[in-house]
């Protein structure tokens, strides 16, 4: 992998991982503060918010980074700057419009999720949806600035701003919910509304960081602008046509996960009640599926998200220069690294499902079963993010739309029948099948239009599978031994089991990978220097 791709990937991966790490672990105190009922209410607001924020940003970070990367490669720096200046105004306007639509449309959204006759629950959902909608005003504006930096191959501003945004959001969320419930003796709806409003506060923190970076980097950016060839004079209309063509697939890719969750929100309760579950039992199962386990499953996907963000400008650059050799090498490295990092993670998560769920929430047979079934789907989430990003890089966005629509149709068609057959795990299976079909379409398109051969990835995948099997056997044996002395249904015991088994499993996996020289093959000379510094290699 080229040093620039690896460095950019590492920076954005680190920032995204820390952000996701914080976004995961806050659920432990948040769950203790608001309980299962509070997380259900929180989920009803956050899934539609995710959909609205995807539409409001219009795939801006990736679309703008691709646009700017393309014209920077041609040394037409003024084109990107022109887009940036006008885009800030457009994003501010789109954010305000989406905020108004979500705020005023909250009652209609609420009726999709619950029985319209349940007036009290409807009012509660409307309140939390309106509280989170304020974030739409600021996030699109902020996303354009991130895209501008990424287009210049500068991943630091995005990474740092993500982390700051998450820290500020979580601090306000936890403190606000706690103060409302335990200091002011307020009600649960107000506490959850404050928690969702934290998205707006986090956005302000992130924007402040990006302004600081802009002030520091502006002299360098101005130097680039001075080197502009000036051979292209592209009108704003033509720019936005190109951005729209780029952004539509990005919007749909960003929407895929929340749309799958939205399908569950609108169909799960009815399907469960049709087979004899009460409304309360169905709501609790939905919370386990769409909030508790989903949070855990998304941990391994963090790496894929980071790779998809860095892939677009680098692959676009290679594609524009018709450097197919470099592009194929980047694709080889990316697929292999994704499999190398995520496969053992999802297997370990499934193996340790009971203590992991107990560690983050509380012991639950349903939570354990759903997490065990859901964990492997993380690999599909990751592969979809990466394959969709590759399609953007080779200018085959139209097929991203096709694969997404087919995947959603599969989820829609199978969700209710599979829930009636397998209950909560049925919704997981419907999600897996929808993603699998979409990924298959993406891979076929990549092969046809880029000429990419998967032979090397298949060979290395077999090696990664063997390493994962060895790790799994050792970890499972250790897990069985620990259960003689420790109880996975107990909080502190669960912590010990997860850290001991996870630590040993990861150590075995990376040790074996280093012994067979897979690590240097995947990560290059940089990993060699790290191993030498850690005295793991002479």
TrEMBL record:
Keywords: Cell cycle, Cell division, Cell membrane, Membrane, Transmembrane, Transmembrane helix. Pfam families: Polysacc_synt. Coiled coil: none annotated. InterPro entries: PG_synth_SpoVB, Poly_Biosynth_Transport, Polysacc_synth. It is a multi-pass membrane protein. The chain crosses the membrane at residues 12-34, 46-65, 86-105, 125-145, 166-184, 190-215, 243-263, 296-315, 335-353, 373-394, 401-422, 428-450, 462-486, 492-512. One of its GO terms (cellular component) is plasma membrane. It is found in: Cell membrane. It comes from the Bacteria. One of its GO terms (biological process) is cell division. This is Cell division protein.
